[in-house]
Every structure is written in C-alpha cells, then in structure tokens.
Amino acid sequence: MAQVLKEAQRSRILSAARQELLQYGYRDASMRRIAQQAQMTVGNLYRYFKNKDELIRVITEPALQRLDALVRELTDDRVTLRQVNAQVGMTCQDLQDRMAVLAGQIVDLYFEMPQEMRILMLHSSISDQIALWFSHLLEVLWREWENLLLPQGQMQTLCRMLSAALCQGMREMFTWDSLPLDRGQLTAVLQAYFDLFVTMLGRFEKGAER
Known about the structure:
By secondary structure, the chain is an all-alpha fold. About 75% of the residues lie in helices and about 0% in strands.
C-alpha cells in the first residue's frame, strides 16, 4: 500500500512539473509551485527529486530513448544518440534517404509525446547535448567523404553552426503554442527541411558537382 501511494505521489509530481515547465520554462520553473500543484510540501518534493534537472531527465528520458531507438534502427546500429562512432560508413544519399524516414518518425513521436518532446527541445540541456552530438556526427561524415574544404578547426566551427541551425529549426517547428499543421503536413515540412539540409551537406562530398 505504501508503495502504491509513493508511486501516486511521484506521478502527481511529474504531471505538475510538466505543466510548470511548459508554462514557465526551465529558468523560471519553481519547485515550490510544483509542490503546491502536487499537493505536498516542498520538503516532501525533494525526497522524490533533488532538483529541476532530475525532474527534466525523468520526464524526457522516455522520448529520448525512443529517439535513440529510431536513430539506431535506421542506421543499423551504426549511429546512436549516446555516442558518435569513429566511422559511420554512410554516403550523402544514404543520409538523405534515412533522414526522410526519420522525419516522419519524429513527427509521429511528437504526436504521441507532445509535452515530453516540447520540454526536451525547449527546456533542457539535453537538446544542447543533441546539437553537440550532431556536430560531431557531421565531422565524422565529412572526414569519411574526404573532401574537407576548410582546415580542421574551421570545419569544426562550421559543423557546430550547421548543427545549431538544424536543431533550432526543429525547436521552432515543435514548440509553437498552436501548431498550424496536421501530422501529414508537418511530416512534409520536416522532410523538406531535412532534404534541404542534406543537399547542402552534399556540396562537401567527394566528387559532388559544384
């Protein structure tokens, strides 16, 4: 019975934290308001979660695990969100084809977990970690394509800029207060966005026409 009550309390905390984060964002979210919404004292709240970062990790972990599974499946376990392998073995066309599929799967995941995805992209340091991960992936791909048009240090900077641009575009798409597009339209837009991005990357692939 005590365990059931504990799980019910934990569930109320997470529900209150989702609403708090979506309304106020990470910086202005208040553990005191979360406790009030969950109908408990702040001291009791800290017995379950030590800070906002831990709350965010617990809330976003299911969505992050699903994203990681999608990436692994599409790349035959060559790429994972947990790390960047030294080799990927993927041409620009491979990347384009797989990202077109991934776009639809990401949209599906957003409609299944809208709160978790919004918090993941807007209100957590995890989104910054994903952007850094993608930057490292770009560096690996361009080394494999053997056509670095810039010195290594400059190419690393360019990779970070491109990764930040891609991630910011996705944040804009999935964090509108009133999403103006249905699932099919949103998928088409994200596929077009990914396609434009990979086409631009293809300019750097060995043997690509300029």
